[in-house]
Amino acid sequence: MNQFPKIFLIAFFISFGFVSLAQTIKNIKPIVFGNTIDIQYKVSGLKLNETLTISLYVSNDGGSTYQGPMLEVKGDVGEKIFNGQHSITWEALKEMAFADVNTVFDIRAEVVSEKIKRDFFVAYSGNLTTPIGLRIGQLGGLGWYITAQSNTNPTLTGSYTYTDGTITDYNQFAWYEFTSNHKVSAYMACAGLTYQLARKLYIYGGAGYGKVDNLYEINEYSYDGDTPLGTDYGRDSKTSIVGVALDAGLIYKIGKLTLIGGASSIGFAIPDFQAGIGYSF
């Protein structure tokens, strides 16, 4: 029993069987913990729709013959092994007796291809300019999405043009004065594509139309007794934006949860940071 760690630390050799050069198992490192052996390894090269089925085989004659697959194993062994760092724990002494022999381990892997899963998702999405939004679409391989966002005054408009502190096109037989109210009317709508970069990571990008109107409120009065006629708005022609809306970013899935982060812009202005959270099904 006391020789167990010494034998394996000195005489440890690992090989592996694999079905394709595109996928690899590397950085294989055995570590002895008492009566167990922890075999660490790294998988790379698997496609989005591929997983590995891993089995552990052992040879006590330097690799001439192998026994297995080993049953007293746990951790990253069996089905559904993905790219990344992994570890197998083998309860060695529960399964075979050891002597002073040249022990060889064989990690055998079978590639399993599956159909790429496509999920629909719905999410709340917004930014500082248009904080109220709904985004729906499809994730998996090449997908699609549409989004619509606005602030609390998306339909608010002004009858006049505001420039440098005055209304430049006021043509009523009345007079006006500015109030202290400055409002913004904004909305955007985009459609685009999603593309799967990794098992849980997607990129999206799209285009559409949007507007951001800066509006200054005025009270209007008649010349006959200064009777109030109501309120209206002057649209700031210099700072308001109307035109092409652009939208791009990343979507990350945690189970059924979808997290969205990116940027959007209206009329090629400075982009707003975009964020969202949703559900896939």
N-to-C span: 53 Å
CATH architecture term of the largest domain: Beta Barrel
Instruction: Kindly give the count of domains.
Output: 2
The portion of residues forming beta strands comes to: over 45%
Rg value: 33 Å
Shape: rod-shaped
User: Which range best describes the helical content: under 10%, 10-25%, 25-40%, 40-55%, 55-70% or over 70%?
Assistant: under 10%
**Secondary-structure element pattern, one letter each:** HEEEEEEEEEEEEEEEEEEE
Kindly provide the name of the CATH class of the largest domain. Answer: Mainly Beta
Strand arrangement in the largest pleated sheet: 9-10-11-14-15-17-18-19
Sheet of most strands: 8 strands, antiparallel, barrel
The strand count comes to: 19
- Category from helices, strands and their pairing: mainly beta
The number of helices is 1
Q: Uncertain spans, ≥5 residues at pLDDT below 50?
A: 5-19
Describe this protein's structure.
The chain is mainly β. Helix content is 3%, strand content 63%. It contains 1 helix and 19 strands. It has one helix spanning 4-11, and strands spanning 13-17, 24-33, 36-44, 50-59, 73-75, 78-81, 84-90, 104-113, 119-126, 132-139, 142-150, 160-163, 166-167, 174-196, 201-222, 228-236, 241-254, 257-266, 272-280. The protein has an 8-stranded antiparallel β-barrel with strand order 9-10-11-14-15-17-18-19. Strands 1-8-4-6 form a 4-stranded mixed beta sheet, with no helix packed on it. A 4-stranded antiparallel beta sheet has the order 2-3-7-5. The protein is rod-shaped.
